[in-house]
Amino acid sequence: MLPDTTGFWTPVALSADLPAGTVMPARTPAGSIALWRSDSGRTAASADRCPHRGMRLSHGFVRGEALSCIYHGWSYAQAGNCLRIPAHPGLAPPETIRVATQRVEETDGLIWVAVGEPTGHPPRMEGLVPLRSLMAHASVSALEIAAGATADPVGIVWKIEPSQTIRLLLALQEDDQTLIHVMLSDKCSPAQRIAASRAAESLRRAAEALQAKGIAP
Amino acid sequence: MTHDAMIDEWYPVGLFSKLDAGGRKTALMGEPIDVARDAEGNARVTGGNGRPLPVCVRYGHVWSSLGAPQKALFAIPEADQAGRRFVDVGVVRVRCSPLRAVENFLDIAHFPFVHTDILGAEPHTEVQNYKVEIREDEVWATQVKFYQPQAAKSASGGITTEYMYRVPAPTCAVLYKTCPPRPGEWDVITLFVQPLAEDLCDVWPWMALYDDTTTLTDLIHFQQTIFLQDRSILENQIPRLLPLDPGMEIPTRADLTSVAYRRWLKRHDYTYGAQLVAQ
After folding, report:
1. DSSP state, residue A152
2. Which InterPro entries did the record assign (chain A) (predicted)?
3. What is the rounded radius of gyration, in angstroms, for the C-alpha atoms of chain A?
4. Which one of A54, A185, B202, B242 has the fewest CB atoms closer than 10 angstroms to its CB?
5. Cα B224 from chain centroid (whole Å)
């Protein structure tokens, strides 16, 4: 998560999990967001609330280069300004109608969202590729105890067997949940990828058990 | 929660036809209540501490109140017209403010997006100007027109439907709409909302229609489809309570009924289920 004085980047999803023309809900420590990718492939993040009637924009739909609310079809550009109000097709929406947006950067197969105003760019994942994401009903400390490793600002480096180390990127969610993005070497064989996926699932089960027993804070 | 004016209003608490001696345990504005039919066949409603609550039976439903209603339940003259079919649709529980459920019922601009290809369809999204007024202390919207692919179970093909809306009580709304088999008459569809809590309600739609051909099952399925589509919206609005602070949400001309409803609620201190100050 690389905190600096003004903000930090948080990994919200794998690029592969957000196809063109779709929207999904995501979370940063600053709140819920609607994360979407336009038909031409550009990613954007906005507050997960349409200012018209408070509907979650993550339930909406993407058409072309705009995100539309599922309730009344109000559509928004990547910059957050309202483009269209279908009930009044002849009306150009005033500039004041807009949703708050957050900066998004996509590198190494990961989608990062800015929390606050970080000055730099998200950390690079040299030689690593994303495998999958999993949600754990467990805190970061429970995951640390289960992995027997300490989290650095970008997550946990975890040796799953003598010959294989993977990196787990951790993104804090609400209600003591943690989103885990599993990253592994781009040289892994299919068998190693399967092993890493299973290891991550075991880790999740172990951390959730610790959390449930109240062993981890 | 302060004691507001809504405590003395009538609320639906169940279908009269479904009552038996065993009773139905439910809730009204946070208080557990019991609704039953006694040995004489009359509806009885009992509050949490066993005290008897006011009761009336009308429009297929049992109505009650935690307070002391100052007047009789609002009139729906069409409920006494011969030739209409009266349909008890049943109940849909929704995790939202009872006031949000009513406001959604008063809205037509969502039809193409939420009730796609039934009550609306793109590109027919425009909401023409309509009239909103307060009549005898009820909110009325008239001359509401909207293009609908299948306005009612009895409709075949798209038509421009005309609507009138009426809000006679804070959690009740009555809709009058063009009646496909009988031009010149209005079908009546109501939304009676039982406030279980400020952010939880049971919605009891009821209908008085001119339709002799559609089966009861089909009529109920049609309405259930519509209300379940609405629920997917109502349970995902933020905040759950209806904001009465004008800065919290942005209305347009299409939302004039909602604007009048919110003002009317505020003026009467009908604030159970409302958020008064933005948080």
Report:
1. B
2. ARHD_Rieske_2Fe_2S (IPR015881), Cholesterol_7-desaturase (IPR050584), Rieske_2Fe-2S (IPR017941), Rieske_2Fe-2S_sf (IPR036922)
3. 19
4. A185
5. 13
∠A32-A205-A170 over CA atoms, to 5°? 40
- The alpha helices in A79-189, defined as continuous H runs, are 140-147
Which of A71, A84, A91, A99 to substitute to test the interface with B, most B CBs within 10 Å? Answer: A71
By three-state DSSP, how is residue B142 classified? strand
ipTM score assigned to the predicted complex: 0.95
- With beta carbons less than 8 A apart as the criterion, state whether B259 and B134 touch: no
Encoding tokens for residue B199?
């952010």
B47 φ, ψ (degrees, to nearest 5):
-80, 180
With an 8 Å Cβ cutoff, is A63 touching chain B? no
A41-93 pLDDT, tens digit each: 999 999 999 999 999 999 999 999 999 999 999 999 999 999 999 999 999 99
Q: Give contacts of B253 with chain A, Cβ < 8 Å.
A: 87-88
Select from A48, A49, A71 the Cβ nearest to the Cβ of B110.
A71
CA B133 – CA A78 distance, rounded (Å): 39
Domains of chain A in start order, with CATH, are: 7-116 (2.102.10.10), 128-213 (3.30.310)
For residue range B42-55, what is the model confidence (pLDDT) as tens digits?
A: 999 999 999 999 99
Which portions of chain A are predicted below pLDDT 50? Answer: 1-2
Residues 6 or more apart whose CB falls under 8 angstroms from that of A194 comprise: none
